[in-house]
Here is the input.
Amino acid sequence: MAAKTTLQKPGILTCKKHTAASANNLTVYVNFHEEEARRLLDLFSYQTNINYTFLKMSSQNTNKRIIAEKELPRADIILGGPADNHQLLAELGLLKAYISPEADQIPDQFKSKQGFWTGIYLGPISIAVNEGLWQQEFGESSFQKPQEFIDLLNPAFKGKIVMPNPVTSGTAFTFIASIIQLWGPEKAAQYFYQLNQNVALYTEDGFTPARKIALGEYLIAVNFLHDQKLMIRNGFNLSYQIPADTGWEIGCVSIVNNAPHPAAAQKFIDFILSREAAILHRELTERIPTRNDIKANENYQSIFKFTINKEYNIFTAAAHKQDYLNFWQQSIKVKN
Here is the structure.
C-alpha cells in the first residue's frame, strides 16, 4: 500500500521596519521554522538597518528554485538545510564563496574549505514515539519501542509511521543517503521496500512528522532530533531514541551566486555566524551549535557523542543525490 504524501504551500513573510534603498534589502530562502527565522532576521535587521523578506520551504524545493532562477537570482541567502544540498548548488556554480571572520570559530569539518557554505547547527536523525498513543496501543505489555531503524519494520507499526519524503525533504534525504552508504544498495533496497509498507504518510518537509505525532495523528515519527525535542519542550508527551549509526546533518548558510544584494548577504553571514546569533539560535531551538565557544542545551558540545554514522559522507551524497533518490523511488515501487 502506497503511503500518502502531503504538500504544503510556502508563504512569503516580510519585515519592513525601515524605508531603505534596494541595496539595503535582503531576500532569504529559509529551510527551518518560520518563527525561528523571523527572530534571527529581526535581530539582524535591528543591528544593520537592513530590510528582509523570507520564503519558507523545504530544502529540496529550495534547490529546485535556486536552479530554476539561476539566470536571474531572486534570493541572496539560503538559510538552513543539510550541507549536501548546499554542496550540490556549489558544484553547479550557484553559490558565491565567502569566508567570514566569524568562521574561525567553526571546525573545518563543518564548513566548505572554499567558503561556499558554513555549518551553523548539527542534528542526528531520531525515532520519536507519542507516549499516550503507545499506552493505548500496547499498554503495559513488554512490547518494546523502536530502538533501531530495523525495528520500524515490525508489522505492528503498519500504518502508524510518518516521515518526510526524500524527494522534497533534506531531512529524509539524509536518512536514505546514510542508510545506502552504511548498508550498501542490496540491503538498503530491501529495507526501503519493507519500511514503505509501514509508512502511512510522507510529508513535504522534515518538521511536520514531529508535529503530527505530537498532535496524536500517528504513533511514530522519523526526523531530526531537534524537531522532536522542540515538540517536547512545548509540552507534548513524546519520547525519542537515536539509533546506532544514525544519519546526521550539518545545517548550513550560504550566499547565492549573483545575488541581488551581495553586500547585505555578506553582512548576514557575519551576523548568523556570530556568537550572539548562535546563542539566540540555541535558545530558540534544540539544535546543536557548530561554534567552538557555544555549548548546546544539554551540556554536550559535539554531535560525535551520539552513536552516529561517522562515515556518512556529504560530498558523496551531494554527488549522487539524484541517483539516491531514483534508487529510493525504485526500491519502494511507488512514484512520489
In short: Residues 4-21 have pLDDT under 50 and may be disordered. The chain has two domains: 4-122+250-301, 123-247+321-332. The chain has twelve helices and 13 strands.
